Amino acid sequence: GQNIDQPTEMTATEGAIVQINCTYQTSGFNGLFWYQQHAGEAPTFLSYNVLDGLEEKGRFSSFLSRSKGYSYLLLKELQMKDSASYLCAVMDSNYQLIWGAGTKLIIKP
Amino acid sequence: GAVVSQHPSRVICKSGTSVKIECRSLDFQATTMFWYRQFPKQSLMLMATSNEGSKATYEQGVEKDKFLINHASLTLSTLTVTSAHPEDSSFYICSASLGTSGGIGSGELFFGEGSRLTVL
Lengths: 109, 120
Hints:
The complex is a heterodimer of chains A (109) and B (120).
Chain A: E1 3-5, E2 9-13, E3 18-25, E4 32-37, E5 44-49, E6 53-57, E7 60-65, E8 70-75, E9 84-91, E10 97-99, E11 103-108
Parallel strand pairs in A: 2-11
Antiparallel strand pairs in A: 1-3, 3-8, 4-5, 4-9, 6-7, 7-8, 9-10, 9-11
Chain B: E1 4-7, E2 10-13, E3 19-25, E4 32-38, E5 45-51, E6 57-58, E7 67-73, E8 76-81, E9 90-97, E10 109-111, E11 115-119
Parallel strand pairs in B: 2-11
Antiparallel strand pairs in B: 1-3, 3-8, 4-5, 4-9, 5-6, 7-8, 9-10, 9-11
């Protein structure tokens, strides 16, 4: 079956760095997405990786290793507004998105 | 970036009534829109894929007669929850792609704000 795994919850300190991991097993691969979702709101797009390596976008970076079925989202210089759920999603061979359950990130002052 | 607008953001209705949720792409044409449902503390669950001018493709376990989807134009898709019951209470979210031919070639989905449905 298809499966996306990511930690349920993480806690970090304001100003620090946090890495949210995502491992996946899917039938085919057409890219991996990271989305941010604040409570009660719809997700917003953060990143898209289809080739191995690191994609940097401001304070957020996303890494992909297709051979390992692994990705991580790296958040630097954490701010209180970064408290949210972070969703990992993989597009399979049918171009269907398979969603992880999300990682709730709690930022403490 | 592209904007997707969803309306209403919140709706409370009595059991047995029908509720319509609209999803509009404001500044681009979306040949394909997606409808999701999300229960508290759970991930998004794809309900159906809506293609302009054709019947929606429903995911397994989603009742197409209960969740009516219409995609009559390139900028509007609607989800109607018919004869709603308390178990239908959920957060419904639509998304649209900028990809060509309905695919996600650009690698990005744009989401509406979501609609929280509460059925009493």
